[in-house]
Amino acid sequence: MHTAVTTAIIPREPVSLTGIAGESVSRRGGRSINADAAATYTDSTVGRTAFVVADGVGDHLLAARAARTVANIAARVGARSGAVAGILAAQQKLLHEFPQEGADSVLVVAVLETDQPKGPCDIAWVGDCRAYRWNGRVLHQITTDHTVAEHFRARGLHAAPRLNHLVTTSARTVRPAAVGHTATGSSRGRLLLSTDGVHKRLEMTDIKAILAGGATAGTAAEALVDNALRSGGTDNATAFVVDAG
Question: What's the total number of domains in the chain?
Fold first, then answer.
């Protein structure tokens, strides 16, 4: 069973590039440890920047180490070779560094062209970390959760609420063909990457209002996390907001 791991503050990941600005906020919430992680990396050779949010499976140190490992590797490889390649490289690193089964994570990766912030955004994910895009008018959830509940709903079946937290893929277990992958038509607007401690506590209307009203990526990320925890959330909560174009 997936237990996302979110009011202690961990360091932000500020990013400021030509046409792209982003910042992450992460808090421990009611857990004993913050097993969420955020990372970013720019590869100047290919002109791409990767943004990653990861959620360790469990409320323990191995989960936190797993999340930080996959986030860092996925960002570095994703910027160079694409979002899916980033996840698969993260899987290899995770299995090599942490052969024990207790070290696992879910994650989402978004890769933008550094010099073309209005171009498409390459997105890959495993588990229930999500990517959203606010284009100034409409909020679109880009990713689809890899959970038992979503599996049932896609087949027109009822899913008990607890099944929303039971993931069907993870960084450790995913097969290459099962990695979620898509691309946006444009990156222009505001991109959100989040762990379930944020998006499963907030309604779409709440997320939309915060993304629309935040003066900067940092203030929007802060508001998302704060509101998720104020709603009664006890999970780790992490939001990475990126403005492009």
Answer: 1
Residue 82 placed within a domain: yes
Q: Quote the distance between the C-alpha of residue 176 and its chain's center.
A: 19
C-alpha closest to that of 29 among 11, 51, 7: 7
Structure tokens of 111?
């890769």
Smallest Cα–Cα separation from 169: which of 231, 124, 111? Answer: 124
Nearest 5°: CA angle at 23, between 21 and 29?
Answer: 165
**205 located within any domain:** yes
Identity of residue 102? G
Tell me the per-residue pLDDT of 38-68, one tens digit each, with 9 for 90 and over: 999 999 999 999 999 999 999 999 999 999 9
Q: 9, 209 in Cβ contact below 8 A? A: no
Among candidates 242, 229, 216, 231, which has minimal Cα distance to 9? 229
pLDDT tens sequence across 68-106 = 999 999 999 999 999 999 999 999 999 999 998 889 999
**From CA 47, how far away is CA 111, in angstroms rounded?**
10
